[in-house]
UniProtKB/TrEMBL annotation:
Domain of life: Bacteria
Name of the featured protein: Iron ABC transporter ATP-binding protein
Pfam families for the chain: ABC_tran, TOBE_2
Source organism per UniProt: Pseudidiomarina marina
All residue ranges annotated as the ABC transporter domain in the record: 4-236
An MF annotation (GO) of this entry: ATP hydrolysis activity
Cellular-component GO terms for this entry: ATP-binding cassette (ABC) transporter complex
C-alpha cells in the first residue's frame, strides 16, 4: 500500500510532446482512473510510472522515494509495481496455481501455496488450482491475471484497459469485483480505460486527459457535476453545452429562457458564455411553455434518452422512465430543474461561483407547437 505522486510530468518522443505537465496524487489504498480520447497519452503516462518510459521533466514518487525524474529512471523491476494489460496473456503451459505464483519465486513453497489459496478465494475461483488457461472463460482468465499481478503484493498496481476484451455486462461486474478485491488487499492502483461506467464503478479519483494534458483530477462525482473544463463536460456523461450572452441586468439570455443567478452579476454585460445542460436538468412537463420536438429516442434500460429540438433549432437531451414512452416526432413540454449551474467562459474554463445555488429560469414567450401552428 503506497502513495503515488506525479509532479509536472513532461514526456516527448522527438519533437512530439505527448504528456504535458501532468500532476496527480493517489493516497495509500486509493484507486485512480485515467480517461480520455484515443492517443491522448494515457498509456505513455502509465508506462512512465512503471519505469518503461523516461521523463523529460517532472518527477514520480512512490511513497517517499523518487523513482523517475529528468536525470534518472529506476528500473521497472526495482519499483515494486504490478501491471495488468488488455492482452493479459497467462502462460498457456502453466496451470492456474503456477501462473499466480509465477512472480513469487523468492517466497517459500508454503507461502506461495497460502497466497494462491487466499487469492483464488478472493477472486471467487476456489479450487481452480489445476486448471489450465484454455479451460477458463475470458472473465476467469482476467481474474487470474489480476491475481498473478497481486500475488507478490506490489506497492502499486497499474491496469491498462484490463477489461476491454470482455463484453459490457461482464466488464461492469468485474469492475465492481476488482474494486472490492483491491480494497481488501489495500492496494493503491491506477487504471486506464475508455469506459466511463468502469471508471465510475472503480475509482476514488479520476481524470480526463486531452492531448497530453490532465484537464481535471477529481472524484468521479465532481468530474460529472462540476467539470472544470468544457472538454471534461463534453467527454463525461451525456449533456449539451448551450450558448448565451450575459445582459446588463446580469441574467443570461439562452435557448431555454432567461437564466438568473447571483454570480452572473459578476460577469460584464455582453460576455458570451456557455453552460452545461445534463439530461436530468430538463424534466418532461406537458404544462411547460418551453417546448420541443422529439428527434430521437435511445433505450437505456430504466430510462429513455430523448434528443429534442427546441423551436430555436437547438438540440437538447432529456431522460424519462422507459415505461413512460414518448413517440419520435411528438411535441413535448420541458421544465428546467437545475440544482446548480456549470458555466464556461470563451477560453473553455469554468467560471467560479455557480455551484452553490440553483438558477431561476424565466420562460420564453410562448411558442406554439409546430403541429398546432401549421
Ligand atoms: N514510442 C513512441 N514513439 C513515438 N510516438 C509514440 C510512441 N508511443 C506512443 N506514441 C504516440 O503518443 C501518443 C499517445 O499514445 P498513448 O498510447 O499514450 O495514447 P493512449 O491515450 O493510451 O491511447 P489509446 O487510448 O488509443 O490506447 C500517440 O499519438 C502515439 O502515436
Amino acid at each position: 500500500m503506497s502513495r503515488l505522486q506525479l509532479d509536472n510530468i513532461h514526456i516527448s518522443f522527438g519533437a512530439l510532446h505527448i504528456v504535458r505537465g501532468v500532476t496527480l496524487e493517489l493516497k495509500q489504498g486509493e484507486i485512480g482512473c485515467l480517461l480520455g480520447p484515443s492517443g491522448c497519452g494515457k498509456t505513455t503516462l502509465l508506462r512512465a510510472i512503471a519505469g518503461f518510459q523516461a521523463l523529460q521533466s517532472g518527477f514520480i514518487h512512490i511513497d517517499d522515494s523518487s523513482v523517475s525524474d529528468e536525470k534518472h529512471t529506476l528500473a521497472p523491476e526495482q519499483r515494486g509495481v504490478g501491471m495488468v494489460f488488455q492482452d493479459f496473456a497467462l502462460f498457456p503451459h502453466l496451470n492456474v496455481e503456477d501462473n499466480i505464483s509465477f512472480g513469487m519465486r523468492k517466497a517459500s513453497a508454503i507461502e506461495r501455496s497460502k497466497r494462491v489459496d487466499e487469492l483464488l478465494d478472493r477472486i471467487g475461483l476456489p479450487g481452480y488450482h489445476k486448471r489450465f488457461p484454455h479451460e477458463l472463460s475470458g472473465g476467469q482468465q482476467q481474474r487470474i491475471a489480476l491475481a498473478r499481478a497481486l500475488a507478490p503484493k506490489p506497492r502499486l498496481l497499474l491496469l491498462d484497459e484490463p477489461f476491454s476484451s470482455l463484453d459490457a455486462e461482464l466488464r461492469e461486474r468485474l469492475a465492481v469485483e476488482v474494486r472490492e478485491l483491491l480494497k481488501k488487499e489495500g492496494i493503491t492502483a491506477l487504471l486506464v480505460t475508455h469506459d466511463q461506467q468502469e471508471a465510475f464503478a472503480m475509482a476514488d479519483k479520476a481524470g480526463v486527459m486531452y492531448q497530453g494534458e490532465l484537464l481535471q483530477w477529481d472524484t468521479p462525482y465532481q468530474l460529472y457535476h462540476q467539470p472544470k473544463h468544457q472538454l471534461v463536460a463534453d467527454f463525461i456523461g451525456h449533456g449539451v453545452l448551450l450558448q448565451g450572452t450575459v445582459n446588463t441586468e446580469g441574467s443570461l439570455a439562452s435557448p431555454l429562457g432567461m437564466l438568473e443567478h447571483p454570480s452572473l452579476l459578476q460577469i460584464p454585460a455582453g460576455t458570451p458564455v456557455s453552460f452545461l445542460v445534463r439530461p436530468d436538468d430538463l424534466v418532461p412537463d406537458p404544462t411547460s411553455r418551453l417546448r420541443g420536438t422529439i428527434k430521437a429516442r435511445g433505450f437505456r434500460g430504466a430510462h429513455n434518452l430523448y434528443t429534442i429540438e427546441l423551436a430555436s433549432g437547438v438540440e437538447i437531451l432529456t431522460l424519462s422512465p422507459s415505461h413512460e414512452e414518448f413517440t419520435v416526432g411528438a411535441n413535448i413540454g420541458l421544465r428546467p430543474e437545475f440544482d446548480h449551474l456549470v458555466v464556461f467562459a470563451a477560453d473553455h474554463c469554468e467560471l467560479p461561483g455557480f455551484h452553490d445555488q440553483a438558477p431561476t429560469v424565466q420562460p420564453l414567450p410562448t411558442v406554439l407547437p409546430k403541429t398546432q401552428s401549421a
